[in-house]
Structures are given as structure tokens and as C-alpha cells.
Amino acid sequence: MTVPAPPLDRLDARELARELGLVEEIEQYLAGLPGRSGPAVPPGPGPAAPAPCPPGAHGSVRQPWNHGHPLPRRSLLDLLARRPARPAEVTVAGHLRLTSRYLAEAGWTQGALWDDRGRVCLLGAQTAVLAHGYGTAYTVRRARAQVMEVLHATGRPVPSPDVWNDRPGRRQAEVHALLERARARAHALGI
């Protein structure tokens, strides 16, 4: 199943990063990459929602990454005011679950927010979930704080989850395990 690119036609990547409070963190991250300088270029816009895959061997249907969450829809007032739809509300735990699902469907990469094939890193997946209209910048900041809490609690002190994501030898399964632990922590905290 292919994953649509985040609807970044509605968002300015720099404005999104500034809103998240991550401009400096992203610039430092990108400056530290070998042979890279400057911000990454986000992929172009894709379709609004992925279509479900055909039935599998046992008659089950693979669900899209955002299954169980309503699609953000523009109200009549949004249309008249020519503004984007209000984000669909998700908890911090819900954001972390959607991030893991998006990462599983799009594919995982290191050293870039996303690549030409649509694969994303941890931050790229969080950005894509937000760009698709799930949660707010505040939700993303709180989710990143939960990821950092898990990293530090498990003896892996790093300056950001992105540095951890890009360590040589890191595997996609480890990223999903980290997101699941952070999701469970957020759920236990009721956020």
C-alpha cells in the first residue's frame, strides 16, 4: 500500500518547524549531516486518504495508517474563510501510535526527514502526521517529550530523538519499539 505524501501544499515547512519550536534543532541536525547544508525539501502533495488494500489471504483487509481516526474535513465556515480544516483531535498517545503506523507504511530512513521514495525518519513521520491534520504542534511537542523521557529513562541520553534515529546500526524495529514505549507511557499518564 502506498502512503500519500503529507499535504504540505497547505503548510510551509519552515512555518511548521517554527510552530513546533524545532527550527534550531532541525538546522543543527541538517548541518551535522555529511555533505548537507540547508533545509530538506518536503515531498509534494499526495491524495487526501489512502484507499484500503485488496483482501489478503485470509479475507482480511489491510487498514490505512490513519484507520480509526476521522479525516480532517473543512467545515462550511472553513471553506468561506478559505482556511484549512481544523486538525482532528488526537491524544499524545494517539499521535505516537499514528507516527508508528505512518512510519511502518511509508518506510523508514536515516539522515533525512524524508527521501525521494517517501520513506521518513522519526521526525519526518511526526511532521507527516501533523501535516495530514492530526493533532496540533503542542501535541507533537508533548509526544517528543515522551520519546525523550523514554530514551533517558532507558539509559540512552541523547540531545534529540533524531540523533538517536540516525545512529549507525539503528533498525526500524527499534524505532517502533521506542514509539510504543512512549505511547504506553503517555497512555498511562492519561495524555
Features:
single chain, 191 residues, mainly alpha, 0% strand
Please, could you describe this protein's structure?
- There is one protein chain.
- The chain is mainly alpha-helical and 191 residues long.
- The protein contains eight helices and no strands.
- Helix 4 packs across helix 6 (137-153) and helix 6 (137-153) packs across helix 8 (172-189).
- The chain is globular.
- The two termini are 30 Å apart.
> Strand count, sense and closure of the main sheet?
none
Q: Compute the separation of the termini in Å.
A: 30 Å
Number of strands: 0
| Percent range for β-strand residues | under 5%
Helix/strand/pairing class, anyone? mainly alpha
What would the average pLDDT be, to the nearest integer? 82
- Helix and strand pattern: HHHHHHHH
State the low-pLDDT regions, or none.
37-49
Radius of gyration in whole Å, from Cα?
17 Å
What's the overall geometry?
A: globular
Number of contiguous helices: 8
DSSP helix fraction:
40-55%
Secondary-structure map:
Blueprint: H1 13-20, H2 23-31, H3 76-81, H4 92-106, H5 122-131, H6 137-153, H7 161-165, H8 172-189
What's the short version?
By secondary structure, this protein is mainly alpha-helical. The chain has eight helices and no strands.
